[in-house]
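User: ok so my PI wants both of these folded by tonight, can you help

Assistant: No problem, let's get them done. Here's the first:
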Amino acid sequence: MSENKKRIVIVGGGIAGLSAGIYGKLAGYDVDIYEKNPVAGGQCMGWNRKGCHIDNCIHWLTGTKKGTALRKVWETVGALDEHTEFADCDSFYTSIKGDSQVTLWKDLERTKSELLKLSPEDAVEIEKFIEHVKYAAECEIPAEKPMDAMGIMDYIHMGVSMANMPKVMKEYGSIDLEELSKRFKHPALKQLFTDYLPKEYVASSFLVSYASITSGNGEIPMGGSLAMVNRMVNRFLRLGGNLHYNAPVVRILIENKKAIGIEIADKEKVLADYIISSVDTMEMFGRLIGKKYMDAKWQSCYADHEKYPLFSAVQAAFVADGEAYDRKGTIFFDCSPFETGGRKVERISVKSYEYEPEFAPAGSLSGELTVSSWARIESPSQLEIMAEEFMDLNPDVTITVDYAETNISAIPDVNQSRDSYCAQVRAELVSGEADYILYSPPGKLNLYDISKSGVLLDLRPYFDSDPTINPDEYFTQVLDAVSVDGKLTSMPFSFYF
């Protein structure tokens, strides 16, 4: 810990934990984030399977409109920057019921026109719905300051920016989506309002969500959830924060009703001036600090499963030929009924990621190769010499050597630079962005754990099938020794007895 600096320990490296860590660093604190998984992100996550990237977190990101207070927050924590591009999506979602199809378009006037054409008898409710979505779209979420730090002028500004929200709350704040759906006569419109969110959700939340889309303040960042997390991780590390992976917190240490530290594996204790818990409340009260610290209102909410039910969903990802499936966006439709979690399910949805061409295999191979290494020790390096020799023998292949640090003697903090490189590589491996060969990776990267996760290419099939390789010329038992679960994911430089 830096001299005379106070220390913050954060439990959980999701969006909340990373944001808290970044603001902590900007405020001048030493900050450590303890994340139980091998990569940060929490629920804002993506996965790589069989050459595909699976993402089902960011359906839209509120606060993408430039100039808004929330956009400034996203830029501060590194989630968005001036180079961030957004998906070209023209709709919120589509609902199919029988022979009718209804779409909530980004263009609100188009939505209004199509709804009125479909169901003229619902004109009054359609007009009212469109009008209140416009009211919600004119409101800006106050994000300049936390509520407890706001003064009288801040409240006045908030009142102006949220001037039309009382109209939305008066009309839709006391009914749920099922009640809203019953206001309409057409079956497709009834279905439309209970497809996207659970029918028990308050109706005003749905209008605010749709308003984010129509106002241009709810876009989808290109690259998906994990790419956004990686930007935040890099921001935190560049500020000098410490991110501990594979470090589940056993409990938060409390003394005289004050949190003083955490306990991690092997009963190791980490003390700090401030502890921030950014995990799920059930995890926090159920295990980290105990339910005795939960106030009575929260306890009653968690105890009443009827009034406050838990919702979940199941996702199945698949690849389809673009010519076989040409629909865009999210589409809801009827399915054969089944029961799960005590509930009957009769509707499912399909979301197309056609706007992310790199989420699925392109069907072709590149003749370019990038080799990543942490730092150049000498120039030219042995790696660069080998790359030149390989390209001389294989003129159709281009090898790029990419160093995180080109002048090791000029690095102010070697350990921090190495840690930052390891964190970035780990995040890129999990996200599928690591389309390179790792050369002499630092030990802290822990290739064994990464190999166990299945994100590294197995070299053994290539080794076994290459006619130019004679196994008798190799110490194959050495290769067996560095294999993980039978897969050869790395090649050793040398070995000794």
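One down. Here's the second:
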Amino acid sequence: MSTWTTSSSPVTLGIRVPHEMFVGGATALREGVKAVVAAGIDRLCVGDHVSFHGGPGFDGLVQATALAALCDLEILTAVYLLPLRHPVPVARQVNSLAQLAPGRFLFGVGVGGEDPNEVRMCGVDPTTRGRRMNESLGIVRDLLAGQTVTRHGGFFEIDDASIRPQLQHPVPVVVGGRSEAALRRAGQLGEGYLAIWLSAERYARSVQTVEQYAVDAGREGVAWRHGLQIWAGFGSSPAAARPLLAQAMETLYTTPFENFERTTPYGTPADVAARSGSAISARPMATKSKPSASARSIFARETMPPSKTSGMRFRVRGWVDTITGRPNCSASAFKTLNNCCRFSGASTFSSRCELTRKYCCSVNARRDKIPDASTPVR
């Protein structure tokens, strides 16, 4: 996916694995991954939180390792809160995961901060997240490259640290965030920028800025893996999908849904495809210094409200990844995302769940193309 190609490049799809699949036991996780593979999905994504807004959380690298052992799909952390950890053990974890999934793991990282108490309980001053990220990411990259690392005078005191064996397949780093510091970090220390809640136009400008930071830092020939994260709500109509999506986002972020609505598509798969298409099609010009092999990505997250019978809520985030050119995508690709991850349960959220699954395996999403959508992402 990081080679130069034309506008006819295939589109790949991925999903954010529902948290309930991990609490349902190994059998449920195996069956869920099997269903995703059968549906033609290409990538599995996981998030990461230590203790978010009162305790909920999940370790992104642990979940990524479990998924990597169950399939041959690409695995992405979107995103791992690196500033909350010591970089040396993180480098060991990433190295071990990359050995299990050579060439299949993308290390997405972010500074977090939506819940400052989560940061503080890890012994980290929230105001230092960005600086800690820069230092930690530099250390992790050097260790993964097989270097012996010594650092003093910053956040970490490290003498002669090394991680062996050296990986045969480098792990691409994708940096999340919206600030100028995040763009600079992605350009100087990453192989991609992972945006969220941006318009198509701002996303395109951000990608150009990231690649210019790389040029200024003397980094040439980067196989870019840029992405745009989008929450998306699926339903029989926009009117049916909106309240489900709004409830989930307001519960998680404690912020009115109206603040997200302009960049958050919802409705039928066709509605989501149309509203997302302009973001995917907003391909920035490649920098003059190199023939950029920029990858274009988009995430979609489906939200289902608690059921009266199961008390369960499911969230799905999918990634549509295109390589260069101006891609097109039909609604069938988003229908695959919608259908292959509809789960229903017969027990409560807190107990072991026996899940029944209904999924679509008749659409090969990798052969779909994303249409030229004139409707802007709202």
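The longest strand covers residues 296-304. Residues 200-216 form the longest helix (17 residues). Good luck tonight!
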